[in-house]
Amino acid sequence: MNLIILLAIAFGGALITYFLGKISQKIRDIFAVFISLALAVIAACFYNVSSREIYYTGFLDFPFVLRVNTFSWFFAVTIAVIGLFSIIFSLNYIRKRGNTDFYYSMMLLVIASMIGIVLSGDLVSFYIFWEIMSWSTFLLISYNRGPAISAGMKYIIMSVTGSVVMLVGIVSLYLHYDTLVYTELSGLLNNASSGYILFIIILFFIAFGVKNAIWPLHVWLPPAHSEAPSPFSSVLSGILIKIGTYGIILLIFVIIQINVFLNLGEGILSVRYIISIIGVITILIPTFIALLQDDAKRLLAWSTIAQAGYIILGIAYGTSESVAGGMFHFFNHAIFKSLLFMVVGAVEYRTNGVRDLNSLGGLIKKMPVTFIGGLIGICGLIGVPLTNGFVSKWLIYKTLILNNSPFLAFAALLGTWGTILYSYKLIHNMFLGQLPEKYEKIKKAPFSMQLPIVILSLAIIFFGIIPGLPLHVINSIESGFGMEPLTINIWGIASDTGTINMLNIFTAVLVIGIMVWLIFKVSKKSTVIGQYDNYAAGTTVPKDKYNYSVNFYDPLCRMISPYLKDFIDDFYMSLARSIKNTGNGIRRIYTGDVGHYVIYIILFLALLIFIQINWELW
Amino acid sequence: MVNPVLLIVIPLGLAFVVPFFGFISKKIEKFIPFVALFFNLIVSLRLFPRVLEQPVHVSIGGFVPPFGINLVAGPIGILFTVLIALVGFLVSIYAFDYIKEKDQEKYHILYLLLLTGATGVVLTGDIFNLFVFFEILCISSYSLVAYFGDKTSIESAVKYLIQGALGSCLILMGIGLLYGQFGTLNMADLAGNIKSVHSVSIFVPLVLFITGFGVEAAIFPLNAWLPDAHSSAPSSISAVLSGIAIEVGLYAMIRVVFTLFGASSILTFLMLLGVITLLIGELCAFCQENIKRMLAYSSIGQIGLMLFALSIASSYGITGGLFQLVSHTLGKSLLFLAAGYMIYRSGSMNISSFEGMGKRMPYTALAFTIGAFSIVGLPPFIGFPGKLMIVKAALFEQEMLYTVLIFFILLATVIEGAYYFRVVQALYFKEEKNTQNQKREIAPLSILIPIFILTGFIVVIGIYPKLITDVLVSSASELLNRADYIKSVMP
Amino acid sequence: MTFLSEYIYYIGAFGLIFIGLYIVLVKKNLIKVIIGLSIIDTGINLFLITIGYIRDGTAPVFSKPGLKANEMVDPVPQALVLTAIVIGVAILALAISLAVKLYKHHGTLNLRKINEQKW
Amino acid sequence: MRKLFVILLLLIIAGGITLSLKEIPFGIPKTKIGDHFINKGVEETGSVNIVTSVVVGYRGFDTLGEITVLFAATIGLGAVIGTFRKNSVNREVEAASLIVYTGCRFLFPVILLVGTYIFIHGHLTPGGGFQGGAIIASAFLLMYLGCSNKRIKENLSKTVEMIGGLTFIAVGIIGLAIGQDFLFNFLPKGEPAELLSAGIIPIVYIAIGLKVGSELAGIIDNLIQKS
Amino acid sequence: MVMNTILEIIIIILLAAIIGLFFLGLSRKIMARIHWRYGPPIAQPVIDIIKLFNQTSMSHGKLFNFGIIFSLSGSVVVLLFLPLGEMCPLSSSGGLLVILYCMLIAPLGLALSGGEAANPITSIGISRKFLLAFGYELPLLLILLTVMTHFNTISIVDIVNMQLQTGWSFQHLPLLLSGIAYILILPAILDLRPFELIQAPQEISSGPMIEYGGKFLALATIQHAFNVFISLSLFTNLFLGGAENPGYFFLKMLIVFIILLFVNAVTPRFRIEQAIKFLWRWPALLAFAGLIIVSVTG
């Protein structure tokens, strides 16, 4: 199979989908699913293939290179698979909405451009795909109208800011080294001055940081994730922001190379440490802000930022365990976060767009499969043992502790405990508690929604018990980067400094669980009662009156909320306002009085002459 | 043997005979610009390969320069003629249905004259002849701005005329001063005599030229006419004004600065001026509610960007600047055409009146979106290579000033993005308030064809910039190698 | 005095130009501004002619035999002026027609008051 | 304040221009191309009026541009003025007295004749297409002023104008067609100072005269009729 | 080998259950004595459990059942990671970090189970439970990190072994600070006054447990007993040098527990915000100081 064919299918599929939709909705749906399935399958076929080809030279003499190795394969497959699931999820979700052709076509375009990003082997084509991804994402975020419009605006402005800055970096690299192909570029920076490397890192980091929603570049993410259509939110949160992670890995490990990166700066002021600290801030602040949210998707959005912080922390810390943890967490986060967005999306779909946590509740009886998906999803998010999130976080913590960075570890761990709070709030307020009467008639989610939910839930458990599979891939990526490989077996990691073996834990939990269940089973049977049949000190619980899921963590929220204003957002907004004010001020020079205009002309002339006569500048 | 002079003469002749066709049938008139510009397109494309090898020189009336007037069809000249012919051709198709007012005849004549004037400016090798053609361009654009004859358009035209006439006077003064000193009007001859601009006597004409052409090129602070004029002209004319007229002004300015004076010392100043123009244009555009005013201010910004790139005066810089020029010509024309039709249907120039247009006119809105993305510089559209080349050119200089300026430019790009994306969102993602005319309507073919062709160019060149970069590189070397130019004209 | 006699033509020409410029820059009335533009034009034409002038030169027309070539004034500026005049006329005509329309629309020719198009 | 400021600016510019005028002493001998034209003009173009040989011969292209400018102005003026035709009030014009009326009608052909003479002899005597055209236009102006009931036939004027323009271009293109340059003087130059000399120059000047005359008349017509 | 492990597991579970239940009984007895009452017999919890298993119970649904099972098995799994003397069956499967995470399972299970019950009081209880947990986890994390950084290992077995060589952790200043902090947060972990907010019988009628009856309550009680054992044993292992034999180990735990009971008996209850404020102030500060000292000197 050829890489160009893969890209051609991806982009061609996106285009054709739009026109197919004009013919028949059904054909288009099938075609879209087929295309994304094909992408996933073809991408998977490149496992352990390592190839590289120049496919286009017509662009300003930059050779466009496509390459695949384990690193890009890993990302490409994740993208294709998550993309496939969200397309499937979309089938019902989007059906009754307007402009569906546009939706599918953009969705496929986003996926295609992401695959293009990870497969491209030089920075120019990387940038081109990057930008295509940016604007198609912008169009999709705005798709929901209403508040989505300002969300999309925020996103695209930040994204464009980031990418133009990156462009400077790319061009600067090109001018210094006369090539932008990774393979030729890598290692060339060994001899560069550390100031220059720092300059490059900062430039690229702004771009990747915006996409990856690193604090303080995160402000676009909460509105964008919460206002986008839910299937796209899962793509957005699951993989799209991880393209930023891909970029960071690319920058640190391929272009700059890890040994150069680790030697930048000294001690607490070293670049790796600073980025790690930024990662930790990215974990902590958004975690607590997520606690305060009442909108399910906004909560998940903040959570996404926080989880991205773990990834950055892991990658920037730079030991082979932490990098493995970071990359594994990328993979896990893609799974469980897209799952959670799908869960919220399913609820939203059935309740006609309600995602306010205070007005939902008790849906477990109505949507059991969705609930299980949500439960497993939050377990993964928290990192409960036997889910995939556990292993990746464990790797990060372990290496932080053992390398004497306890404060980073503390912040990361604290973030996890915050995660418990908000993720329980999410599941409790949606599915547990009392079922409001208006939701009595809700049906369970349709099959096209349940299918991805079920598969992704299974994947969480599967990779939680057998972390060795992805870790093996990650290990070979790392050895490709010239890092010390981990000792990995299929159940976990065995090393001198710390061992984890999911099989033992799994067996233990399973056996003990069965034992307890047996005890439970053999003891006297219990009768099942309804939700209003509650103990209420002698009276009955009045219907629809008590919904204690409102303001779930009120005491804590009252305590911390004054400190958690998103002042970065305020800062950007005031920046935007001041730019607008400046513009409004400046345009007053065009007074409308032509007398002024001619004076400008003569003034310009006189000024130039005056300067020349007096100072002879020119 | 194709002679570049035909590029000027044939459209001129056709412009003269438009009234005659008017006698036969009123319907034929509108096809005259179409035919003329089609002819120009063919001729200039046929000239292309020849010009790339070596500039074509034509002396009028058989008198060798500096005694007669000569035309220099170098790569840059032919590049411009192709652009003018192409955009003019497409806009003339657009005008089939767009211009429905009475006095169509006059519109078409003036339109043709405008483009002929522009062609003359880029081809001529004589400074006074350049001035004459420049006046043709200006006078027809004054009239065309006033074409609708309503309150705003007359007001804008008056303001435009006053400033433009002042600019012309300055140019003429400059010509007089130059002629007084060197006794010749041929640009190559003049250039051969001018060694440096340091002395006041040469500097003053230079500044007069810069100011005079700067008015037409809309460089800050000489650009106050532009937002008014571009926003109140008919959209087809706005497209040509924005896409061609100001670029031709910029061409004249750059030609004068580079070739005539070889004034490399003033380039840094022009560069700063470019950045200031860019920032001011974008900031003002950011605050506009009127779509055409917004586009007009955006044109100011783009001109600033081009000026910046051209003033870098390296091969990279000029190539980048010219690429940006091409991309702006195509993109901005497309934007004005698409916006024009939407304004025509919605009856208001307010951005909010565009809400829901994505549903009402899908193709036009799509074209507008692509044009907007291209202007902002998003791949895979034509704006991106231009931006890339400019950044490359600026960073290539390896100087702090350039790096700082490039960040300002990129800031401006972001601002530009902000207001364009706002319109795109209005097109697609805001519901129309008055729901009665939700009906979907397809624009007539004469509107769609030019829009589609422009869109096609934007995408194709965006993906395959090599299509034009070769020409641009040789254009850049033409501009940079002053000595070659002089030698080729005056052996 | 020699200075004046040497440069009186220049002073005249540029005097006109600057008077015109002053009018354009300062006056409010559109008609006056147009007149100013016209004066600038005239000044420039005068300037051009002055450049080509030779002391005691004759018109460059060999209308009768015996005229010496080296006593003739430079014909080029005259040709240029011919063109410039026509251009000036063209601008003037257009400006006046616009002024007429402007008056119809706004009821005034005061340029300070005609500022609907701004910002 | 504004005035002072403007004066200051103008002074600066004046200073600059004065400094640059130092290089252009007044009354200098002819310049390079001026010399060439005077010395070789008659020989090369056959026109004894060197200005004409410059205007139509050496710099004929300028002249083409120039008539185009005028053409553009005429059309533009028509377009600008004509847009409000409906609303314009038909002003009652008092008829001129008989003397004026007759005088005008008498002078009209004479003026036309003078104009024609001037542009036909453009290559021989001072004068030429523009001057002749302007005189012709003044004849029409006279008609408008004196005989308010007479109007130019618009179509006729248009046709004349068109023929003028086309002739110019056709002459130019013939030069191109015979394998020379545009506006090449392909006709025999004849004896200098004869009426039938200087090749294409008289033809071009006649064309210019017709065109300028009809254009200026058209401007007058437009301004009088439609405003 | 495998048989040995299985045997160890069974012994540990049984021991933990016995010790845990004994502590529960003991606490009631001691409290009564402090209150000048006679108090129930020490075996009362066991008697209760046996009785409860024989009562009919009411269930709110599958998650209600699943949650309690999940919770109990989570607690049991944690036991397997804790060295009890020489015995530590799952020592090689992740260490202290896994313990930290597995300790999550139990409250999460209870919360889920209570969630389905849809009783408002349960919701309040759960909310308080998580908040309080968040309150004490902050110092707890600092404490554990101090210990792990000090010994530069994440394996609890290694920690115990090193204490055997170098003496109890309490002897080192940073760990002393952490140890004090741990004692300060222990009542919160064990739901004792002044942090008895979750059950708070007088206030929210046992909170999360309100819907439990019969075997559910029995299982919940067992889980609580395990919880008591786990927290105390963690403390003993980390700071009091663990022990070579279970008896000695038990003694250490008992002393700590009795101290806590005295505190419990004489203090009133915090409000939840006050509790969090307290927890985030003193214990956290102490632990933080400890961590700083460790990371600077280590």
Can you lay out the helices and strands and say which pair or pack?
The complex is a heteropentamer of chains A (618), B (491), C (119), D (227) and E (298).
Chain A lengths: L2 H21 L1 H21 L5 E9 L2 E7 L1 H24 L6 H20 L3 H19 L5 H31 L4 H4 L8 H19 L8 H7 L2 H11 L1 H15 L1 H5 L8 H22 L3 H22 L2 H31 L17 H15 L5 H15 L3 H26 L15 H19 L2 H13 L7 E2 L2 E2 L6 E2 H21 L3 E3 L25 H7 L6 H20 L7 H22 L3
Antiparallel strand pairs in A: 1-2, 3-4, 4-5
Helix pairs in contact in A: 1-2, 1-4, 2-3, 2-4, 3-4, 3-10, 3-15, 3-19, 4-5, 5-6, 6-8, 6-9, 8-11, 9-10, 9-14, 10-15, 11-14, 13-14, 13-18, 14-15, 14-18, 15-16, 15-17, 15-19, 15-20, 16-18, 16-19, 17-18, 17-19
Chain B lengths: L4 H20 L6 H23 L2 E4 L10 E4 L1 H24 L5 H20 L3 H19 L5 H32 L4 H7 L6 H18 L7 H8 L2 H26 L6 H20 L4 H22 L2 H32 L10 H4 L1 H15 L6 H14 L3 H30 L15 H19 L2 H15 L1 H8 L2
Antiparallel strand pairs in B: 1-2
Chain D lengths: L1 H20 L10 H14 L4 H9 L1 H23 L15 H23 L8 H18 L7 H24 L22 H27 L1
Key attributes of the depicted protein:
heteropentamer, C: 119 residues, mainly alpha, Helix Hairpins, elongated, E: 11 helices
What does this structure look like?
The complex is a heteropentamer of chains A (618), B (491), C (119), D (227) and E (298). In chain A, strand 3 and strand 4 form a beta hairpin. Chain A contains 24 helices and six strands. Chain A has three domains: 261 residues, no CATH class; 253 residues, no CATH class; 50 residues, no CATH class. In chain A, the strands form two sheets. In chain A, strands 3-4-5 form a three-stranded antiparallel beta sheet. Helix content of chain B is 77%, strand content 2%. Chain B has a domain of 200 residues. Chain B has a two-stranded antiparallel sheet with strand order 1-2. Chain B starts with a helix and ends with a helix.
Q: Which series of helices and strands of chain C comes N to C?
A: HHH
CATH class of chain C: Mainly Alpha
How many whole angstroms does the radius of gyration of chain E measure? 19 Å
The ordered string of helix (H) and strand (E) elements of chain E is HHEHHHHHHHHH
Describe the main β-sheet of chain C briefly.
Answer: none
Write down the domain tally of chain C: 1
Biggest interface found: A-E, 77 and 79 residues
Low-confidence stretches of chain C: none
Tell the overall outline of chain E: globular
Structural class of chain C: mainly alpha
Round the mean pLDDT of chain C to the nearest integer and report it. 85
Identify the CATH architecture of chain C.
Orthogonal Bundle
**Which structural class should the secondary elements of chain E be placed in?**
mainly alpha
Assign a percent range to the helix content of chain E. over 70%
Please count the beta strands of chain C (DSSP E, at least 2 residues each): 0
Number of helices of chain C: 3
User: What is the terminal separation of chain C in angstroms?
Assistant: 51 Å
Strand content of chain E: under 5%
Total tally of structural domains of chain E: 1
**Terminal CA distance of chain E:** 38 Å
Mean pLDDT of chain E: 81
